[in-house]
Amino acid sequence: ALPVERIPDVCRIADVFVTISNRTNVLNPLHEAMTAGLPVIALNTGRTSDVVKDNETGVLLEREGLERLDEVIVSLLEDPERAHRLGNAARASADGRLPSIEERQAMEVGIVELAVREHRERAR
């Protein structure tokens, strides 16, 4: 287990974040990578394109283009300026879209408190 505040530091060890799930790529690791400012390469499945904007906050690959994955990775590694631009845009997008850890915890506590209140009211 890793304390949540250390996740960005660990992510920054990487040069690029790749996610190629067949169902969706909008999962915590994607958000963590974007928050850390990594350039993202993602397979365009599910609602991935709602989060990763092709050539703005990352690179989206269609299924039929997946055989180009190695070329896309190498192209980002060989163009640090582009990788940096995509990573910065990914971070800005995540910062504008995602709540802070404290905000997220407060929302979760609020949900639990509401559920407890509703349960108690139904039990009366």
Could you characterize what this model shows?
By secondary structure, the protein is mostly helical. Strands 1-2-3 form a three-stranded parallel sheet, sandwiched between helices. Helix 2 packs across helix 5. It is elongated and about 65 Å long. The mean pLDDT is 90.
Described by strand count, sense and barrel closure, the largest sheet is: 3 strands, parallel
Mean pLDDT equals 90
Rg is 18 Å
- Work out the number of β strands: 3
Count the helices. How many? 6
Main structural class: mainly alpha
Query: Which shape, going by the Cα principal axes?
Result: elongated
Sequence stretches where pLDDT stays below 50 over 5 or more residues: none
SSE order in H/E notation?
A: HEHEHEHHH
Amount of beta strand? 5-15%
- Distance between the first and last residues' Cα: 41 Å
The amount of helix comes to 40-55%
Essential attributes:
124 residues, mainly alpha, 6 helices
Set out the fold topology:
Blueprint: H1 7-11, E1 17-19, H2 28-35, E2 40-43, H3 48-51, E3 58-61, H4 69-78, H5 80-97, H6 101-123
Helix pairs in contact: 2-5
Short description:
The protein is mostly helical and 124 residues long. 55% of the residues lie in helices and 9% in strands.
